[in-house]
Amino acid sequence: MMVNWIPLLLLETTTFILGHFFLNEIQWQFMQRLVLTGFWLYLMFLFFLCFRPSFGNPFVIFRSFHNVPINIWPTLNLRIDTLENIILTVPTGAFFALIFQRINLLEAGLLSIIPGILIESGQFVADYFCQIERIVDINDIISNWLGCMLGFFVISSIIRINPKLWQRFAFN
Question: Is the dihedral of CA 72, 77, 78, 79 positive or negative?
């Protein structure tokens, strides 16, 4: 069914247009442009993985809210995609570290919860209106948070070790 591809098409088109505008309308240094271009391509890939229609997993039992499969119990039905979600959001945490070099660990933890909530909320809305057959899962929010924190911690540690090298990447 073609309707279930609409959310992905809208996200990819919007990301492409905004990224193109953002990269070309502001004067960036070469390394900043390189990081932003990489993050832009990463977002396009992330949206493809998170919002392309799926056909669900018939072996996992979930509750349903208005025909949207959801899991609100942490650690219930942990699967290999938990590790994939951690790896998938490491670049987001790394990008956060480059942009927000002066935030503490608590602020980083609060900031890192946002991508998982946005992805799962977006999947819920897209599944509710366009039946993309994605599972809204609390474990995904937790694993996305862990991935962001891991990326943030690694890049923040590298920045502390060699701050002059990383100033070329700084956005502040």
Answer: negative
Each residue of 23-72: pLDDT tens digit? Answer: 888 888 888 888 899 999 999 999 999 999 986 565 565 678 888 888 88
133 contacts: CB under 8 Å, gap ≥ 6:
4, 53, 54, 55, 56, 69, 127
Give how many domains the chain has, as a whole number: 1
pLDDT tens digits, residue range 89-119? 999 999 999 888 788 889 999 999 999 999 9
**Exposed e or buried b per residue across 135-155, where buried means at least 16 C-beta atoms within 10 angstroms of its C-beta:** bbbbbbbbbbbbbbbbbbbeb
What is the residue range of 8's domain?
A: 2-169
Whole-angstrom CA distances from 168 to 30, 33, 153, 165 are 9, 11, 19, 7
